[in-house]
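Format notes (please read before filing issues)

Several people have asked whether sequences and structure tokens are stored in separate files. They are not. Every record keeps both together, in the order shown below: the sequence lines, then the token lines. Line labels are part of the format and must not be stripped during preprocessing.
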Amino acid sequence: MKDYIEFSPLHIYQRRANKPAGGMGGIDVFKIAQKGVTLESLVFSQDMTDKEMDSTVIEKYKQEVGEIFRIGNFITLPTKNIETIASTLQVTKKPIMVWFYFEGGEWNKSIPTIDNNHVDIYAPTTGRHSVAAVDFTLYEGKKALIIEDSWGPEYGIKGQRIVTEDFFKERNFFAAYTMNFKFDELPEETKPKYTFNNDLDFGQNNNEIKVLQDILKYEGVFPVNTESTGYYGAITKKGVGEFQLRYKVVDSNTSSGFGRVGPITRKKLNELYS
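Then the structure lines:
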């Protein structure tokens, strides 16, 4: 049986970028977690209002405990792609943060439905909510995710809901998951050594890509708790893109060649790892 550690949502929520406004953004959560989150047993957060959480004083030593549990990086996944979410759940065995927008009546069901095809994600009356995708299944012949909802056990089916592919494709706008804690990162002596001789791109499957994934793990932009498969999928493409931005191989994620190992990226890889 794996150990379970309960972290304090209050310690995250107090540090949100939009404070004192309610709610917070998805990427903001992960950036805060990169600085560390203390334990729920030290900073209790259940059944508290926003005002109570914002006014709680967290002693310095309790915050410092949280620094032990910093995450090294996080992976964002393509939006509206339920197959990528399902395959990532299967490979990593980790829950995935997925965000949805909706009208209130659409979400307040065990199985959310699309009742209005013209919901504006930015409208003040539109709900925007993050949940944890924990498994995948088929529901009445449709691909579906099983999610845990922070609204509590009185919602859905004891706090769980089924989100079918049609709702996911229409209303998902963010998806990401944590890779590893800082203390799980690979030590210096495991630095890969390899010389790349070929360009690599999405959809390919070979041993060079397996080595590439090992290097991306070492760089902290690929999950360390998963096997290097040699398949160049969405997570590998994202990791290559982050590597390119880190070493200024490309200017942005809209640059030509972003996420692809072409001659310039290959030269940088060989410079660092040959």
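For reference, the curators noted about this record: Residues 237 and 259 are 5 Å apart (CA to CA). DSSP finds ten helices and six strands in the chain.
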